[in-house]
Amino acid sequence: MKRSRLYRIVTLATLLAASPFFVARPASAAPKTRGPALVFVGTYTTKTESKGIYALRFDDRSGKLSLLGVAGPSTDPSFLTVDPTEKYLYAVNEVGDFGGAKSGAVSAFSIGAGGKLTPLNQLPSGGADPCYVAFDRNGKFLLVANYTGGNVAVFSVQKDGKLGARAAFEQHEGHGVVQDRQEGPHAHWIATSPDNRFALAVDLGIDEVVVDKFDAASGALSPNTPPFAKLEDGAGPRHLVFSPNGKFAYVTNELGSTVTVFSYDASAGVLEAKQTTTTLPADYNGPNDTAEIAVHPSGKFLYVSNRGRDSIAVFGIDGKSGILNFIGDFLTRGQTPRNFAIDPSGHYLLVANQKTNDIEVFKIDLTTGELAFTGERVEVPAPVDLAFAGVI
Description:
Blueprint: H1 12-18, E1 36-43, E2 52-59, E3 64-73, E4 77-82, E5 88-93, E6 105-111, E7 117-124, E8 130-135, E9 141-146, E10 151-157, E11 163-171, E12 187-192, E13 198-203, E14 208-214, E15 221-230, E16 237-242, E17 248-253, E18 258-265, E19 270-278, E20 289-295, E21 301-307, E22 311-317, E23 324-331, E24 337-342, E25 348-353, E26 358-364, E27 371-379, E28 383-391
Antiparallel strand pairs: 1-2, 1-28, 2-3, 4-5, 5-6, 6-7, 8-9, 9-10, 10-11, 12-13, 13-14, 14-15, 16-17, 17-18, 18-19, 20-21, 21-22, 22-23, 24-25, 25-26, 26-27
């Protein structure tokens, strides 16, 4: 069985920021509706009924969600990302023994009509159980976090969409205070800064956000000064998201069920902690691990998923200070919301409930940030990650 840890699905804020055409929007603005779009679903296939990556059709004008079927067979394709041209999809295969080595894999696919995926190539990820993948801001390199391996890697991407040579590799070192979860490093997330000058890697096992200088020409990594930002002992940081203006970064702490707010100095790649706050209501005392985190494209609201409480926590964001104000949490109507994604229009939030094998659609109140179930629901076995692609 997989450990009770979180694997990232592609959130809207990450997809927008990854695009070379991304422009920070004013806090009062939200993207317009686009119409029917593809949504890919990463899953676990081991000991489940899943066959690989699934494709959905979502219409942001009506909120209608429908299942298209299996997009492409793949083994434990837990986390996905789509390239800026929306022609190719990449998945990490969360296994520990690819090719007889202690490594997972990274797979490249071309996207065809109706979301059908055609395999292009597959390479070792550089460490066991890769759980996150993202493009640099120019769409030239793919960054991978290997959870059990405790390391990160960077791969070049060729013009035909195939994965090229590994451009960088970095092994994390150390451990945390939670013996059964932090016995060693566990890289859980990696992406580049909004200006593409730095690579930030969130490591659950050592309670750090590791910061490297990123060479956008070669894909190379080199330690920044300082080389990391420290979280509270035992926090177990999982994922990070930047504010649309790039001035703040928000880290969800899986083990602590908290969010830490950082100010971000883009000139030096330096994070400074400003606030840590719980993702749970005061009257909840049960077990919980956080999972996904996303900022609304308006920049006004932050969302975090709680596994155990099985809810989406909603925060208001102070535009000047980045400080969070807890608005409330909204039950996901299923178990273990490992991932969620805000659609590109900013009007809807889709939740992947892993243990109840379903994806449910919630309407976002653009004034309050609150969520309301729309009645739209589809069944997908063991969903882990959601990635929006182009209009169909």
